[in-house]
UniProtKB/TrEMBL annotation:
Keywords: Glycoprotein, Leucine-rich repeat, Membrane, Receptor, Repeat, Transmembrane, Transmembrane helix. It comes from Citrus sinensis. It comes from the Eukaryota. It holds the Pfam family LRR_1. It is found in: Membrane. This is Leucine-rich repeat-containing N-terminal plant-type domain-containing protein.
Amino acid sequence: LSYNRLNGSIPDRIDGLLRLSHLILAHNNLEGEVPVQLCGLNQLQLLDLSDNKLHGLIPPCFDNTALHERRVLSLLSGIDLSCNKLIGDIPPQIGNLTRIQTLNLSHNNLTGTILSTFTNLRHIESLDLYHNKLNGKIPCQLVELNALVVFSVAYNNLSGKIPEMTTQFATFNESNYKGNPFLCGLPLPICRSPVTMLEASTSNEGDDNLIDMDCFFNTFTTSYVIVIFGIVIILYVNPYWRRRWFYLVEMWIASCYYFVVDNLIPIRFCH
């Protein structure tokens, strides 16, 4: 039913379609939350709800555990929830979908970290987390996903060192990671400051200032005090420069006085 003008929400009674293997409702105007009743479709192989107006959390039911004495979503090989308004963390249960080949959660408002349980997805070929608000590090264990062909975490708030360029990760370039200013490591710039990267991974607040203002003011004040003490010591030790200094101060005071008298004090005419 994709590419129509369907609106409203996905009905809760959809769990009655027990033999449904493909549910494709992409490119409509559907609203509401992703119904948890989808967990009861134990024959479902493909779920595509992309490009709608769905909001709320991703149901934490994508699991291989029993529900009403049935194993749910154990056949699911493709999930596309991209281009919606989903929020919250990625449910860790997604890591239990061992048959998954495609997972697209891009263009949402998902937060939290990239799950280390993704390493269980041995058959995954496409993992797209593009344009969310994910933070923390990219798990280095993802290099174990030997079937991975498409991978994007661009435009998030990720930080730290990216996984080593081995196996499938050797085929990924800078475009797969762009939009994460605190990521480093090949093919991005080399990680130079471990302290900075640690602070970036523990704080999600964006900071556009390239100068540490506290450090700047401390350095400026110290330099200013040192210069003043240097001038005082030179004047104390060298009588010639001391006389010259007092002469310049006297000339400066006189110049200021006559400037004020000639320019700022109103002229009074005698009658």
